[in-house]
Every structure is written in structure tokens, then in C-alpha cells.
Amino acid sequence: MTDSRYPLAVAWLHDRPGIDLLDQTFLPHEEVRRPLDDLEGVFEAIANLRVRGAPAIGVTAAMGLAATVSRSIEAGTSPESPSALLAQLDRGARVLEGARPTARNLSHSLRALLGAMREWLDQEATTRAPQADLPGWACHPWSRALVGLADDIRSADAAQCRQMGMHGADLFPSEGVSLLTHCNTGALATAGSGTALAAVYELHARGVPVRVYACEARPVLQGARLTAWELQRAGIEVTLITDSMAGALMAEGQVDAVILGADAVCANGDVVNKIGTYTLALLAQEHGLPFYVAAPRTTVDKSLASGAQVPIEERSADEVRFLGGVRTAPPDVAVWNPAFDRTPAHLITALITDAGILRPPFGPAIQRLVD
Ligand code: MRU
Asked: Are 237 and 177 in contact (CB under 8 A)?
């Protein structure tokens, strides 16, 4: 079931095997939906930020893999043995895992889909396909199972957003709050109401006056293009600032807390998130402001001892040389363009997860969460 308060980042196609993506590269100018029915298209959409945000990437990859393999099952061109089907899924998962290296949710969702399908194939004789409101084209038992299991991943993410929203909103006073956020952590970044912005939506729903300052998030402006659009659409007060204004805004006393998301949460509580997050954490510490990171458990990877182990995606130099299609720098100037940075655990006040609020020391709390 969809909720019209939130834009729908990804859905099933209804007329044929595939997925229906809101192409975020056109926002805020146009709402363009893009049908995708092959693995190359799903890879391209993730790599080129048509869909972005760690949970949305994970859900899109799982649904995209399920739909594209289902297409071959329905066409009768898929392998006929369960082990060959699993090998086909594994090949597809490996391709999609390469689309963006930092978001933990990407491989988490793909591996969850494979594990669930393996289990289903093992028990096929005794277990029914998962119940879900599946698209009509999924007729073969294998594709119904696969699509149902991918849909479970989508609906679990939406449920986790609701939980993060409740827990996050409980952190703030009912008299009202002014929050600074970074990048886009809302419905566009998930299959539900978001991670950090889920708390904002929940505060708004509770009638708590909430004002959001959104950093624009250079180079590709997820804050300006997406967060400002999404919050305005929901009728939530939002004020856009450039990234370099955050310190002055805090010094003016306009911010009660910083709240943002994560692409990776490590075993020791370090987080990796959109470039600029580390700077905001340092600024929050200097100004004595709480610094909250919201992430579902699918973003947590306890095999990563610390942020140093998380690969940081470096993106095209032209993302920095251009702004909105206009060149703003000499064509051949050298550029450094990491998409993410690492924030050490000691700068984080609390992690807002679907299972509740985690406070320092994060190591034991994260261990309990993933166990
Ligand atoms: O490069 P993006 O737009 O995928 O970066 C997204 C973020 O950094 C978000 O803060 C993060 O994915 C977590 S919120 C859903």
C-alpha cells in the first residue's frame, strides 16, 4: 500500500516484468518515471543517481534483479534447475553490487534476496510462495516467489522507516524544533518515509512545529533538488542553505540539532555518509548541538571494524566542474570528488535505528542490534 504523503521512489511495473522508477535526476523540474526491464538499465539507474539513497538503492536492486530474472523465467529462457537459477541470480547480484560501492544496503538487499530464494527453492514442495500483492505478470511459481521475496524487502524497508520515524521523533520536545539536515534522507531515499526525514514527517504528523534547514549538498545538490522539493511537497517548513553556511547558522543559534542518514554504520559506531557530514559533526560539537544519525539495521555492517574500512566512492570530476549543466571551472582543472566521508563515533550523540535509539558506547549496542 502506498502513502500519498511520500513520493514513490520505486514500484513494480504492471504491464510487463520490470520496475518503475522515479528518475531523480529530473527533480525538481519534472516528475519523470522510467520503466526498467533489464539488468543494464537497473545498473545504469543506480550508478547515475536516477535512484539514490542507501535503502532505495538496495530495494531497487533487489526488485530490479527479481524482475529481470522473472522476465526470463516467464519467457522460458531461464535455466530449469534450482541451482542454475541461483547461479543466474548470483551473477546478476554481482553486477549490481558494483554499481555503487559505499552503500551497505545494496549488497545487504541482494544477498537477502538470494538467501530467501535459496530457502524457498529448498522447501518448494512444502512451502507456498510468500503472500504479497504481486503484479499480474508473475505467473510461474519461481517468479511469483522471487517477486514476492523482493517485495518483502521493499515492505520491510518501509516498516523500518516508520519505526525510525517514531523513535527519532521521540527525541524532540513537543514545543517545536529546528533541525539541520544534509543530502536527502526522505521518501526519495527509501521505500517509505525515509531515515532522518522519517522523524521530521512524524513530528509534522504529531503536530509538533518543525523547521528544517537543508544543506544543498554539493556537488549534485540532493539537498536543494530533492529534500527541498520533498519537504515543500509535504507542507513542511524548509529553508535551503549552501553547505558553507552551516557554521554561521549554528553560531546564530538557529539550529537545535543535526539529523542525517548513513550509507554505512560500522561495528564501532563510525558512520559513512554524504560528503560534508564530517564537517557538520565537527561544527555540531563546537556548538554543543546533538548530532543524530538515522539508519535502519540494513545499513549496519559489523564486518567493518571502523570507518577506515568502508570504500569511499569517487565520482566524475565533471560533477564538480559543472553546476546544473553549466561549466563553473576551467575544463581541465584537477578535481577531488569523493561522494562520502567518514564521521568517527565519538562525534555522534545517538544512532536512530528501527530497533530504537543507540547511545555510546556504540560497539556493544550495535552488536546487540545485529544479533
Ligand atoms: O549519493 P547519494 O545521494 O546516494 O547519497 C545519499 C546519502 O548520503 C544519504 O544520506 C544516505 O544514503 C542515507 S539516507 C537514506
From this structure: no
